[in-house]
Amino acid sequence: MASLTITVNGARREVQAPGDTPLLYVLRNDLGLSGPQFGCGLSQCGACSVLVDGKEVRSCVMAVSRVAGKEVTTLEGLAARWVKQNGLPAADAEKTLHPVQQAWIDEQVPLCGFCQNGMMIKAAELLDQTPQPTVAQIKNAFTSDGPSPHLCRCGSYSAIIEAVQRASSVIAKRGER
Ligand code: FES
Ligand code: FES
C-alpha cells in the first residue's frame, strides 16, 4: 500500500492505495465523490470521465499514480473550476453551477442519469477548447474525440447537443461583458 498525494477539485488529498489502483476507485471509495460512475470499467462508455489538467480521461483505466502532480476535476468540482477560470470570488463556487450543469438542468437532459457525469465532463472540456462549437464539432467530441464514444443507453443525445449549444451561448454572452 502506497501513500499518494493527489489534487482533486483544488484540494490536496492523501490516499493510501497501490499505485495501479484505478483513479475511479480512489475518487469514489476513498474520497467519497459520487459524480464519476462505474459503467464498463474498460474505457468504452465514458461514465467515469473526469478532467485531468483540463483533458477528459477515463478514470476507470487511469492508474492513480499517473495523476500525481496533476489537477483532477470531477463533476463536483466543475463549478469551482468555472469560478476560478472567470476570476469570480471563490465563495461564488458554492452558489454557482458551471454553464454546462445549468444547461443540463434547463434542457432536462438526464433520463436515468447514469451516463450524464461523463457527458457534462466532455461538454466542459469541449467548451474550454471550442467555446462556439458547431453541431458537427459537438457530435465529434462525443463520438470520435476519445477512446470511445460516450454512450447513453437512454438516448439523450439530441438533448445533449441542445444543452451544449445553450451552454455555449451563455459562455459567449459572458465573453461580451
Ligand atoms: S466506466 Fe470508464 S469508460 Fe466506462
Ligand atoms: S441518461 Fe440513462 S444512460 Fe444516459
How is the topology of this model organized?
Elements lengths: L2 E6 L2 E6 L6 H8 L18 E4 L2 E4 L12 E3 L4 H8 L13 H8 L9 H14 L5 H9 L13 H20 L1
Helix pairs in contact: 3-6
This protein binds FE2/S2 (inorganic) cluster (FES) (2 copies).
- The neighbouring-strand order within the major sheet is 2-1-5-3-4
Report the biggest beta sheet as strand number plus sense, adding barrel if it closes: 5 strands, mixed
Inertia-based shape: globular
- The number of helical elements comes to 6
Bound molecules: FE2/S2 (inorganic) cluster
**pLDDT < 50 stretches:** none
Q: Kindly report the average pLDDT value.
A: 96
Distance between the termini: 51 Å
Q: Which range best describes the helical content: under 10%, 10-25%, 25-40%, 40-55%, 55-70% or over 70%?
A: 25-40%
Please tag this protein with its features.
177 residues, alpha+beta, 6 helices, binds FE2/S2 (inorganic) cluster
Provide a compact summary of the structure.
This protein is α+β, with helices and mostly antiparallel strands. Helix content is 38%, strand content 13%.
Describe the 3D structure.
There is one protein chain. With 177 residues, the chain is α+β, with helices and mostly antiparallel strands. It contains six helices and five strands, in the order E-E-H-E-E-E-H-H-H-H-H. It has a five-stranded mixed sheet with strand order 2-1-5-3-4, sandwiched between helices. Strand 3 and strand 4 (55-58) form a beta hairpin. Helix 3 packs across helix 6. The chain is globular. The N and C termini lie far apart (51 Å). The model has no long low-confidence stretch (mean pLDDT 96). Bound molecules: FE2/S2 (inorganic) cluster (2 copies).
